[in-house]
Design a protein that fits this description.
By secondary structure, the chain is of the alpha+beta class. Helix content is 32%, strand content 16%. The mean pLDDT is 95.
């Protein structure tokens, strides 16, 4: 007899363009899979209730809270984490560049989740207003910045991305 919760499943996922196949506990959270199984610690775990947004990753291009999703639910899907944003080790993604130039972060704990939300948002809305940006990041809590520089960084990132 197997103990409750110790059932294991084989999953196949593509994370930041790299395919992975792992056997995981059926109850393993996606955030824990990314952090502990794959070593992608840029996905932060804040509240563990889906409220703060620090654990946000893209699943097939859509933002999801990885602390609310089981790793087995990601089977067959593409995941992008903050580690997958930069095109190379020597070049930042426009969002990262904008956050650096416009001082869009302080402690940085919320930043990976905000960047992932903004990546999906700017793909759909390449020229957003300040109000639209604020609405897009309204599910991501930041206790340090007051959001003004985050919004300025998002507007600047949108400009950089349009110039590409």
């Amino acid at each position: 007899m197997t103990a409750v919760g110790s059932e294991r499943r084989c999953i196949r996922v593509t994370v930041n363009g790299i395919p992975y196949e792992r056997e995981v506990e059926a109850r393993l959270l996606l955030s824990d899979f990314l952090r502990h199984e794959l070593g992608l610690t840029g996905t932060h775990v804040g509240c563990e209730h889906g409220v703060c947004g620090a654990c946000t990753v893209l699943l097939d291009g859509e933002p999801v809270r990885s602390c609310l999703m089981l790793a087995v639910q990601a089977h067959g899907h593409e995941i992008e984490t903050v580690e997958g944003l930069a095109p190379s080790e020597r070049e930042l993604h426009p969002l990262q560049q904008a956050f650096w130039e416009k001082h869009g972060l302080q402690c940085g704990y919320c930043t990976p989740g905000i960047l992932m939300v903004l990546k999906a948002f700017l793909a759909e809305n390449p020229d957003p207003s300040e109000e639209e940006i604020r609405e897009a990041i309204s599910g991501n809590l930041c206790r340090c910045t007051g959001y003004q520089n985050i919004v300025e960084a998002a507007r600047y990132a949108a400009q950089l991305m349009r110039q590409r």
